[in-house]
Amino acid sequence: MSVPRLLNRAAFILAPVALSLIITAVLIAALGNDPLEVFDMTWTGAFRDSARVAAVLNLWIPLTLCAIGLIVTFTAGLWNIGVEGQMMAGALTASWGAQFLSLPQPVLIPVCVGLGALGGLSWAALAGLLKTRFAVNEIFGGVALNAIANTVAIYFISGPWQPPEGGSAQSTPPFPPDSWLPVASAEFPVSVFMLALVISLTVLVIASLNGTRFGLELKATGKNAKSARLLGVPVTRTALLALIVCGALAGMAGSHRVLHTYHALRPLVSGGIGFYALLIALLAGFRALPIPVLTFILAAILAGSTRVNTLLGVDPSLVGVLQGLIVLLILIGAGVRQRWFPAKGGAA
Asked: Taking 50 as the threshold, does the pLDDT of residue 346 lie above it?
């Protein structure tokens, strides 16, 4: 890509972000708060000390796993709305391993994370089979499977895995400490194992999309499935593999939530991370390379906004307003770019 085109694309991404920050600042001022103070508290709330940086990274890990997996499915032309359910399925299978497997910790941790990947990919494969065998659109299948996964989790939490003192729909008992993801230190409670795993998998996905036959098949399927099929691309298998890869990554994200964030299984354990990952994939223009940076920025906003809500009493929905503005303005910017600054040789 030439330098002018690169600068043009960057401008149409950064300008909407800057405009959304300005609009948010006006809203903050209208609510009687100082915008600079709010932004400063968001920054210090995310980066003031090692513990707060760790909180950002602990959001970054599952968010990046889901977002990088969604890039795979979007490349294949699939809207994997079921990523939340895939996270929950991974959380369920990882929770089973944490509670019922008696293994040394160095073995148990990778096994539980692997079980999470297995649960997520199985749930994604179910959505893929519904699409490829029964012509159920992945959006509708994903939404339905999200609800089913949450219902199954509530059944286990309030039934077979309930606390000894009696039924509860809030949480399972804490998992055995051997199943907890080891952290770097008490001052920096981040799992080095998961951090290294996320970085490795992100590099692997980026390399696969840009330098392998599988990546070419994904792109061909996403651009024009009918033409790809005529050229010999196994379109059905490629679409199913894309969902399976995304499901495995989302399942690992779910395992991180139960083995590190909560040390137990809870309803809606994903915390909306799957939907935030959809937002990130949209902001990245369905490209893998910007994902780690964008997920880090969003993780910092989410972690830092907690301090703002607590100290200033700013409504938590303000963060949602900022996210919505960014998405809306970037979409408008993309439309303007396509209408008045089309790529050479491309249609407006």
From this structure: no
